[in-house]
Amino acid sequence: MTINQRQFKLHPVLNLNAPILKPCYLSLCLSTLMLTGVSAWSHAEDTQVTTAYASLPTITVYAEHENESPVSRTSINRENLDKTGVTDMASIVKYLPLVNAPFSVAGSGTFFDGTGTSSYNIRGIDANRIGLDVDGVDLAEATVSTYIPPRSMGQRGAGRDYIEPEMFRSVDIVSGTTDVSTDGIGGRVSFKNKSPEDYLTGDKTLAGTFKAGYSSADKAWLSSVTGAIGNENLKALVAYAHRDGHETKPNSKTSAFPADWTSDAVLTRILWKLSDQHQLNFTADYYKKKSDTDGIASNLFTNYKSDAKQQQNVDRTQFSIDHIYRPNDFILFDKLNSKIWYQQSNNDTDTSFMNSATVARDFSTTYQEKNVGLKVDASKELKNQKIKYGLSIDQKDYSSTKLDLRNGVPSTVVYQGGYLLDSALKRYSVYMSDDIRFNLFERDLTLTPSVRVERQEFRPDITSYSDVQARDFNYVSPSFSASYQFTPDNYSYLKYTRGTRIPSPTEMGGIYQTMPGNPSYIVIGNSNLNKETSDAFEIGLRNTSIDGIKFDVTGFYSKYNDFIDYRNYGMTPQYPFGYYRAENLANAQIWGGELSTRIDLGQFIPNSDGFSIALVAGKTKGSAKNKENVKSGVNSVQPEKGSLTFAYDDPNKVFGLGLTATAVGSKTASQDVSTYQDNIKYQPVAGYAVLDLSAYWNVSKFAKLNVTLNNMFDKTYWDYAAVGTITGTNQASLIDRAAEPGRNVVASVEFKY
To answer: Are 270 and 281 in contact, with CB atoms under 8 Å apart?
Structure first.
């Protein structure tokens, strides 16, 4: 490993000039707490402050799988989010072997699209094939590139980065096709918002935290406050987080484009216990981010006479009401959860530059998605069965605008309008699963048949395009799993899941064209697309037979049919530069395995209490075949990856250290089904190994400190997901600019009461 001997300077955790809480948001937080507190304090009693040291988890990259559930679900709690220095969507999963978050670098996609994280990649499947939700409400979909003919659907115009990690109590990640209660043929990431119950533990009626943090990679400051108040019947929480920073500096010779950004997030939750049987929960969740980028190099693109400036504004607003009903004795269910919600997401991007010596060009796009829905989930425990069933109804409304101005006047040679036809998508779904337990050789055998039935109705506002018309979809997706408890310490399972993904409104109604009659091209959706389907098989074993050792191993194989991407139909009289349409281009298969283990060394070595070793590793392979039976690779499949952590946690949980080594293999992208061009030459992306150091210190029961030193030896390396498929005349410059950060620090100090 080569060590770059650059001077490194630790930044202070606190700075009097750092941004603190904005008064308007802070006032809102305090007002909500005070209003709720009138009721809470009327029933409050004096409580004794107790230490929370015993409840703190160890600092490790090892993430707990569900012990007795036939699913690859990983949960990362609030404490480990803090301890590993999570600041954004990507860093949440930085140590997981087969999960990452590709980041789009300005200029590596299209000149007119913004930056951000498009989605997660799980086991080689990414973009809208991965489900993302906050408290069960889907995040907005990613859209395709808005200007030039995209090389694939993976080239994103508007991403899905509408979250603030500071708002979450945990993040749950399901790898592979999800169970029948949700959709997602590649997996699902569920962000769980904070709740008053996280803070009002024991007899507490008032609790809160204040946190300040700093990230040196992008010179970003964090300030946040969380407060909770309540009694047995009524609880409330208000949380606010503010960040502001600059461009993330790559550890390479090419500088990042200068950027300034700010973000704000506000969360309000009220839990109201109406009786022993009924509870109402109210949630208001708001997030916004503003980014300003200057100096986007004109030499990256032909015919552009000046560097470009870009402004991007992203926001998400969600309101929801949950009702929990627990009847004393009811034949149909023991528990009924009902949820209604409203969510609106906006993504606006404006790019300006000199198109020539005399023409100033302003290109702006907006994307808006509204989501209104209802979901009901029920469960019933019988003697040897656990039945789960439910239904959901929702409607998503999509709209976009696109405006191309030349010296302030709309261009006459470029189509003015949206890059996505305004449309509505209605979804109706029902599901049911039944855990049936048997006694086999005095051990538990559980068989779980499940089924999901769904109908979707796509309705575009304009149907003047022959390729884009109203369309209805129906599907039935069954699944089956069998699990067996060989011994009390050995749990195994075998699972089959049929997954289905309906084409998105972008795939069916996305459109960009230059004006007819001019040398032009068109990129258009297709409402005649078939559904994408998956047949996923998974086998797993979890072992805790030796005290101090946890061991999980999973093998999987998935076959995907009718992958959707763009096809180039070549030149036509109307479109001499090309006619590109969404099509079901290929079938693919992906297979691989994952391993995770943790060893508490104190169980085996004298005088080593608190020391532990944890390992997570995974490898995935894939192949595809297009409709002409031409074989290819699958470029979305990521290189093999493993993370090894050596940690020490003080037995009293006062302090802890964790040293994590992460190794990633090399990979070179190849011609695959998502690429319509021939003879594409991709650059190889070298493998790498980096070392991170994390530490925490519970200074007292009222304060704690977390520090993470990432990339200790200042390694220059690249993430395959970000640069693996970058092409073009400026390929080398674009790739160099997308290098990962060098040595950097993430630190936070938190005060609690």
So the answer is: yes
Domain count, the chain: 1
DSSP state of 299: G
Neighbours of 489 (CB within 10 A): 15
Q: Taking the model in full, what pTM does it have?
A: 0.89
Q: Residue 7 domain-assigned? A: no
Quote the domain boundaries for residue 561: 23-752
The values of phi and psi at residue 719, to 5°, are -90, 120
351 falls within a domain = yes
Cβ neighbours, 10 Å, residue 305? 14
- What are 137-181's pLDDT values in tens digits? 999 988 876 665 555 565 566 778 899 999 999 999 999 888 899
Q: How far apart are CA 489 and CA 544, in angstroms?
A: 5
Average pLDDT rounded to a whole number, residues 428-432: 97
Q: Are the beta carbons of 56 and 79 closer than 8 angstroms?
A: yes
Phi-psi region of 13 (alpha: psi -120 to 50; beta: other; left: phi over 0): alpha
Asked whether 283 and 269 are in contact (CB, 8 A), the reply is yes
Other C-beta atoms lying within 10 Å of the C-beta of residue 674: 25
With 90 as the cut, is the pLDDT of residue 401 above it? Answer: no
Q: What sign has the CA pseudo-torsion 240, 119, 536, 687?
A: negative
Residue percentage of the chain with pLDDT more than 90: 58
Instruction: Judge contact between 228 and 195, C-beta under 8 A.
Output: no
pLDDT at 44: 36
- What pLDDT, on the 0 to 100 scale, is given for residue 20? 43
Q: Is the dihedral of CA 302, 306, 307, 309 positive or negative?
A: negative
Look at strands 522-524 and 579-600 and give their pairing. parallel
- What b/e readout covers 727-746, taking b as 16+ CB neighbours within 10 angstroms? beebeebbbbbbbbbbbbbb
Q: Tokens 């696109």 map to which residue?
A: 402
Neighbours of 621 (CB within 10 A): 14
Structure tokens at 167: 């708002």
Please name which of 74, 39, 44 lies closest in space to residue 60, comparing C-alpha atoms.
Answer: 74
Distance CA 419, CA 375 (A): 31
Half-sphere exposure (CA, 13 Å, Cβ side) for 168?
27
Q: Which residues contact 75 (CB under 8 A, 6 or more apart)?
A: 63, 64, 66, 170, 171, 172, 173
Q: What pLDDT digit, counting tens, does each position of 265-308 carry?
A: 999 999 999 999 999 999 999 999 999 988 888 776 666 678 88
In a domain, 18, yes or no: no
Q: What is the CATH number of the domain that holds 206?
A: 2.40.170.20
Q: 275 vs 5, 140, 280, 325, 539, CA distance in Å?
A: 65, 36, 10, 10, 43
The rounded distance, in Å, linking the Cα atoms of 274 and 256 is 54
Domain membership flag for residue 15: no
Q: Tell me the C-alpha to C-alpha distance, in Å, between residue 35 and each of 147, 195, 233.
A: 49, 17, 15
